[in-house]
Design brief:
The chain is built from three helices and no strands. The chain is mainly alpha-helical and 83 residues long. It has one domain. Helix 1 packs antiparallel against helix 2.
Amino acid sequence: MLLLLVVTGLLYVVLGDLREAIALLAAIFVVIGITLYQEHKAERALEALRDLSSPVRSESAMVWNVVSAAERFARDSGSIGGR
């Protein structure tokens, strides 16, 4: 489709209708620019989603898990002792 529009623009140039050729080719370049911008944004969004969905092990998460486990153990051992 894009190739057909470019050929049409070149045909306008050959036939001598420069105003139509410039208008058509300018519109084509605007559409190409918008398409590239949207594709770039979509790729960045997909990359961000991949980063969010991948499991990440950080020290703060491990420390939190250890503290959580220690608190649960303290609660459980207190209830077992009958206090």
